[in-house]
Specification:
The protein has 19 helices and two strands. This is Amino acid permease.
């Protein structure tokens, strides 16, 4: 029983499965496509919203250092992802990596975790996009009825038709092919980056040096609390994080980490990359570096334009320009945010479907979903299924209270990938590695410690919801996945038993 739970799928078998005609994805992506995907999904609500929140509540003008800290945590994980994605260029990202190193049950756990992370992230972003679009429509004099905006308090019924429509349209684009998705993403990312550069360049002319004083405001300890909304580390050890001061920077880093979520999704497209050994490391590390530079620059500019105590929490960039008498820039920023969120939503949905596809190809989920479209060579069945489900969820649910589950899911994946690098280095030192994580095991260990630190700073209720989802996953695995996986079928065939249908 124990050996069956930790049976591994060797790298050679993983690569061989990608060559089966019915289950093979088309290789069409370049390093530039991957970098664009990374930038497209990373730059989203984080840069347009979180800057004001953490500057006002946690770090002051030192919010730029918080972005650097969060970027370093992601960089440690990115180095581990780059090695795996170039060594095992198979759809599934952390799920596939853990299957090759830790075993089937750990792989299922991380795959189940990624399904939640990407699905929830897609729905959350779709709802956020809907809010920006409704704001733009209101400015133009067009108003959606409340029951079509998901917020009709009078009748108790509300369906966010814009959020649901966005998910369905993006589902259709992903079914039609990765190259089309890459072209649309490139266009939208170009618009989004231009808007961010406008903020940086235009805002630089309105910086007031006095707004940076003090750069690191005096520390203000957070009162101790015993409810589930308190950080887990506070409930476990009685340690209360601080607002402002040096510790406030680290507290802020655990919040702005949400702004970096996405570079790991680049790894889910490894199987559809023309030269993954060369291009995956470039796409992962390149997109992370570009976004970190942009984040730091934006945070420096916006805290220089307006005193951190006066920054808006809802729309800090747009409102900072309004505060200095330039509403036109505020409109451009709102437009850029709305446009930019479309790529975030699409690439999160892309990552979701690739993980689901990889799990079904391995038999842990029904094999029906592992067949690709005969013409477009995309996993159309899981894409359509998940697209419809997420559209319904986004239409009926605001999901604001569940957004932190995306953070904990991503950090959990970081931990698993870092551990997997160490294990695979020891168990398969013979594997050709186009990119090697430097200073192993130091870098992976630092990645694990940094990720766990940020996880402990998340609310205890987030851990509770995460645990409930994992328990559901264990039931699904033991009732279906354990006996239907391809490794289990091969073991039974080797033992002369009839395969289970």
């Amino acid at each position: 029983m124990s050996s069956a739970l930790f049976r591994t799928k060797n790298v050679e078998q993983s690569l061989q499965d990608t060559e089966e005609p019915e289950h093979s994805l088309r290789k069409s992506l370049s390093a530039l496509d991957l970098t664009v995907f990374g930038v497209g999904v990373i730059i989203g609500t984080g840069i347009f919203v979180l800057t004001g929140q953490v500057a006002k509540n946690n770090a002051g003008p030192a919010v730029s250092l918080a972005f650097v800290v969060a970027g370093v945590v992601c960089a440690l994980a990115a180095l581990c992802y780059a090695e795996f994605a170039s060594t095992v260029p198979v759809a599934g990202s952390a799920y596939t990596f853990s299957y090759a190193s830790l075993g089937e049950l750990p792989a299922w756990i991380i795959g189940w975790d990624l399904v939640l992370e990407f699905a929830l992230g897609t729905a959350v972003v779709a709802v956020g996009w809907s809010g920006y679009i409704r704001s733009l429509l209101d400015n133009a004099g067009w108003h959606l009825p409340d029951y079509l905006a998901g917020r009709d308090n009078a009748t108790g019924f509300g369906f966010d038709v814009l959020a649901a429509a966005l998910v369905l349209v993006l589902t259709g684009i992903l079914v039609l092919g990765m190259k089309l998705s890459a072209r649309i993403t490139s266009l939208v990312v170009a618009v989004k980056v231009v808007v961010v550069l406008i903020v940086i360049i235009a805002g630089a002319f309105f910086i007031n040096g006095g707004n940076y004083k003090p750069f690191i405001p005096p520390s203000q300890p957070v009162p101790a609390g015993g409810n589930l909304k308190a950080p887990l580390i506070q409930l476990m050890f009685g340690w209360a994080p601080a607002n402002f001061g040096v510790m406030g920077i680290f507290t802020a880093a655990s919040v702005v980490f949400f702004a970096f979520i996405g570079f790991d999704i680049v790894a889910t497209a490894a199987e559809e990359t023309r030269n993954p050994q060369r291009d995956m490391p470039r796409g992962i590390l390149g997109s992370l570096f570009i976004c970190t530079v942009l984040y730091v620059a934006v945070s420096i500019v916006v805290t220089g334009m307006q005193k951190y105590t006066m920054l808006s929490v809802a729309a800090p960039l747009a409102d900072a320009f309004k505060a200095i008498g330039h509403p036109w820039y505020a409109g451009v920023i709102s437009f850029g945010a709305a446009i930019g969120l479309t790529t975030v939503c699409m690439i999160l949905l892309l990552g979701q479907t690739r993980v689901f596809f990889a799990m079904s190809r391995d038999g842990l989920l029904p094999r029906f979903f592992s067949h690709v479209h005969p013409r477009f060579k995309t996993p159309h069945r899981p894409t359509i299924l998940l697209g419809v489900i997420i559209a319904i969820v986004a239409g009926f649910t605001s999901l604001s209270a569940l957004a932190e589950l995306v953070n904990i899911g991503t950090l959990f994946a970081f931990v698993v990938v870092a551990i997997s690098v160490i294990i695979l280095r020891r168990t398969r030192p013979d594997l050709p590695r186009a990119f090697r994580t430097p200073w192993v095991p130091v870098i992976p260990v630092l990645s694990v410690c940094a990720s766990l630190w940020l996880m402990l700073n998340l609310p205890a209720e987030t851990w509770l919801r995460f645990a409930i989802w994992m328990v559901i996953g264990f039931f699904v695995y033991f009732l279906y996945g354990r006996t239907h996986s391809r490794l289990a079928l091969r073991e039974r065939e080797g033992a002369g038993q009839a395969p289970r249908r």
